Prior knowledge:
The complex is a heterodimer. Chain A is an alpha+beta fold. Helix content of chain A is about 50%, strand content about 30%. Chain A has one domain. Chain A has helices at about 1-10, 15-65; strands spanning about 75-80, 80-95, 100-110. Chain A has a 3-stranded antiparallel β-sheet with strand order 1-2-3. Chain A is elongated and about 90 Å long. By secondary structure, chain B is α+β, with helices and mostly antiparallel strands. Chain B has one domain (about 1-165). Chain B has 1 helix and 9 strands, in the order H-E-E-E-E-E-E-E-E-E. The termini of chain B are far apart. The chains are: A alpha+beta, B alpha+beta. The interface between A and B is medium-sized, with 30 and 32 residues.
Amino acid sequence: xxxxxxxxxxxxxxxxxxxxxxxxxxxxxxxxxxxxxxxxxxxxxxxxxxxxxxxxxxxxxxxxxxxxxxxxxxxxxxxxxxxxxxxxxxxxxxxxxxxxxxxxxxxxxxxxx
Amino acid sequence: xxxxxxxxxxxxxxxxxxxxxxxxxxxxxxxxxxxxxxxxxxxxxxxxxxxxxxxxxxxxxxxxxxxxxxxxxxxxxxxxxxxxxxxxxxxxxxxxxxxxxxxxxxxxxxxxxxxxxxxxxxxxxxxxxxxxxxxxxxxxxxxxxxxxxxxxxxxxxxxxxxxxx
Lengths: 113, 165
């Protein structure tokens, strides 16, 4: 009895209120959607990264296969109080992957070349 | 008591049912979208992970081989030699009398190895691994410089026989 009495005084939601709440609900769903797709996209990005690194590896291997030519280039390494100088060159290979312009980069030191 | 309750009109009922229908349709779609996405992600992971690991294993194991040849599948193991081959959609490794599968049956049946030679006579092992699971495909291609092999003729196939130093 008491409940029915209380309900009598209430008008419920208007159509406008319902529409507004639905709009808010869909907005929240829209913002939550990217969190669902994030894992999948990251996985594909990781896959693209591996492909790019495999491709960079090919370029590095080709560089390593080139005949050795004596060089005067040297890199110096500070090791404690000592300075070590090693003849050789640093080769850098990179490849772009994915949609965000990320790069797979490999830097190697080839001694004596 | 009954006289004071007016109930709802047919229009109100229709509108509320339509709204509930819309909300449910969105909810169900989201649920199935999430489920499909999870399934695709799972397939992609099951493809990428073994292919990446296998590529890495081949690179490190074959790089310093002292002899390498392309052979046919099924392999006929010879003592002292290691084999990596594609058979029944799986990549397997044979060494010292034991065979271990590097991937599940996900690989596409194709020539995965190619021995190449550059203009200086240096040999490379070109590896092309392609897999497919539930509509997802993934492929990794790379060349490995064979440190101890020179001037070997080009060849391609599904299996390599090699000797480690």
